[in-house]
Amino acid sequence: MRGIKSLFIITAVTLLTACEGKTLDLYRAKVTTINDKVCVLIEAKDNEYLNLIEITSSDSAQNTFRKFYSVDDKAIPLSRNQCVPLFDYPFKEGLAYGVSIGTFIKPAAKMNGRNFIATFALYRTGGKLEATRVYNN
């Protein structure tokens, strides 16, 4: 359980420090599994795009995954009915994970965004991969 707490703290601190000192509202992302794959869902707004994603694991041997997009990149539009892209991250059952998602909302004249977080553990029940939330984040 201590490793899970550390994972949550590291994820939250990383998200907060990436924001140039501004206080952030963190929104909860929903985690589920579909066909034995992890699916992270957010309540995306119209014209909301992926700015960053960070995935951390309770397995110290597994590296943290980070991917950033700027407004000028070919940013990925987000939808409340579609899984956030996880870029084939190698999730493993029996481990806990933290996923941080930063977004931006276009048009650029009103540039703003939101931050989402999910902490969860993966396990198998009856041969099916399941995710359970670790904290009430």
What structural keywords apply?
137 residues; mainly beta; Immunoglobulin-like; 6-stranded mixed beta sheet; two-stranded antiparallel sheet; 8 strands; elongated; DUF7480 domain-containing protein; DUF7480
Model description:
By secondary structure, this protein is mainly beta. The chain has a single domain (2-133), classed as Immunoglobulin-like. Helix content is 12%, strand content 39%. The protein has 1 helix and 8 strands. The protein has one helix at residues 2-17, and strands at 26-28, 30-34, 37-41, 48-57, 65-68, 96-105, 115-125, 128-133. Strands 1, 4, 5, 6, 7 and 8 form a 6-stranded mixed sheet that branches. A two-stranded antiparallel ribbon has the order 2-3. Strand 4 and strand 5 form a beta hairpin. The longest helix is centred in the N-terminal third of the chain and has 16 residues, at 2-17. The protein is elongated and about 50 Å long. Mean pLDDT is 83; it is low at 12-21. Pfam families: DUF7480. This is DUF7480 domain-containing protein.
